[in-house]
Structure formats: C-alpha cells, structure tokens
Design goal:
Elements (H helix, E strand, L loop, with lengths): L2 H5 L2 H9 L11 H4 L8 E2 L3 E2 L9 H10 L6 E5 L5 H7 L4 E6 L2 H14 L4 E4 L2 H7 L6 E5 L8 H11 L2 E7 L3 H4 L14 E5 L2 E9 L16 E5 L1 H10 L2 E9 L7 E8 L2
Length: about 270
C-alpha cells in the first residue's frame, strides 16, 4: 500500500477536495463570484450587490469635511462589511484598522482589497471586546451600520467615546411613527421601550428581532438573534452626556428600512 493510500481514504475525500479547485481561466471577478447572491455592495465596474451607493463618496466626503483630512489619520473602522468605506478612506491616506466579526464578510473585504489594491489592515473578530480592552487611541472611529445591530448600543457608544475624540456614525433608530405603523417592519420590534438609567439620564431602547433575515447566507447583522434600537433622543443624548457635540449630515425618519441618521460626534473642548 502506498503512503498516499495509507494516510487517506481516497474514495471518500478526493472528489470533495478536487471540487475546491478552479479550472476556469483566471479573471478579475472570479473571486467575487465565490459569494454570488451574498454581496451587499455594488462593486464598481463589476456589479453583484444590491446597494450601489455604498462605494459612493458622499458619506466619506461628509466625514472628511468634519475632520479636515484623512491623510495620516489613524482610523478604526467597526464592521467594514465589504470594505467600501475602508477603500475610500485608505485611498485618501488614512491608516485604517478594520474589524469585522462576520467571517464571510471578512473574506469579501479581502477580495475587495485584492481587487482594488489598497493598504489597510483587516482583522477577524468582535470589536466590542477590542474596544473594551484597548489602550490605543484613534484619530477617528467610523461606525456605520453597526449601532443598531448591538444588544447594548450604549456600551458601544461609551467605549467609542473613550477611544477617540471624533466618531462618525450612520445608524437606524427607533421611531414609533415609522416602525409601529409600518406593516413590513412592525412585527420585528417590541414597541414598549426598555428604560435604562445611564449617566444621569433615562435612555430608551426597543428590542428588534431579525427573524427570517437570519436564513439569508449574506446576512451581515449582529452576533445575536436580536438587537436594541435606541430612540433618536437617546442616541444623540448619549453622545451629549459623554461630552460630545453632534453635527448631523442627514436624518431620514421615513427611510424604507427604518429611520436613519448620519452624524459626526466631536468631543467638546
């Protein structure tokens, strides 16, 4: 018996292993096709995802205007999803550390980085324990599309505010006028708020359940089956309580996926 036959059950393994090889002509979009049906981003020049705006510069332009420049800035990006904003900040000269907990999203980030050839460090893991433990300070933290996926968004806000003086946020928030009366969204929320005494203020948040969203392989939400959505007043009030002033870029109460807001929070001098 050969060494190969001695060490491997060839009948049960070879066909499965060989299925993992590509025999196609190498193309730029071959790696993108590995995640067909999972992409959230519409990749410039290639397509794939359903959200064309993610790679547009409008969001990053707002944050750059708030901080002056990305050149030489140490940036912590929470939940890069598919590296769109990582790419935009890195190509403007930022030193980006991007932490992604979704394993498939992490791999898609690496594919985008390989495709567009930009410098950034992507790390697989949960940014919550990292923020709680790190002593490093960052010039800017980017937290777009993450707060409403947290089970404890107030703790994340506190940890971000300890780690940087400037924080960029895009997030959903709870508003009964939109969510309680919307038949497409209402069933996902507890409409009675949970009240939390926090830094001398009463904060209100509402439990949200992902439900059937968890059956999609491209799901890129939180690490638990539920999350907590802060009300708008509690969201902005949390930054105020920690000594930050907020500049709002846009606030859309009737956004189709739920009320959303984008702002930059800066520590008061």
């Amino acid at each position: 018996m050969s060494v190969l036959e001695n060490n491997f059950d060839t009948k049960s393994t070879v066909s499965n292993v060989l299925d993992e090889f590509s025999t196609d002509m190498p193309t730029e979009d071959a790696a993108l096709k590995l995640f067909n049906g999972e992409w959230s981003s519409h990749i410039p020049g290639f397509g794939f995802g359903y959200s064309a705006h993610i790679f547009e510069r409008v969001r990053i332009d707002f944050f750059r205007n708030q901080i002056g420049t990305f050149v030489g800035k140490d940036v912590l990006e929470l939940g890069p999803l598919e590296a769109a904003q990582t790419y935009l900040m890195a190509t403007e000269g930022a030193n980006v550390l991007a932490i992604e907990s979704n394993k498939r999203s992490f791999l898609r980030c690496l594919i985008v980085q390989n495709l567009f050839q930009f410098h950034a460090k992507f790390t697989l893991g949960d940014f919550r324990p990292y923020l709680a433990a790190t002593g490093k300070r960052f010039d800017f933290i980017l937290a777009t599309g993450v707060l409403y996926h947290m089970t404890d968004p107030l703790q994340l806000i506190e940890d971000m505010c300890r780690t940087s003086d400037t924080i960029g946020v895009w997030t959903h928030y709870y508003d009964a006028g939109q969510l309680k009366e919307n038949p497409k969204l209402s069933h996902r929320y507890d409409h009675e708020p949970t009240e939390i005494e926090w830094h001398g203020r009463t904060m209100r948040q509402h439990r949200q359940a992902y439900k059937d969203m968890l059956t999609w392989v491209g799901f890129s939400g939180g690490t638990a089956p539920t999350s907590a959505w802060l009300t708008r007043d509690s969201l902005l009030g949390a930054f105020d309580a920690l000594g930050f002033d907020v500049t709002i870029d846009h606030d859309i109460p009737y956004f189709e996926a739920g009320p959303c807001i984008q702002f930059c929070a800066k520590r008061r001098k």
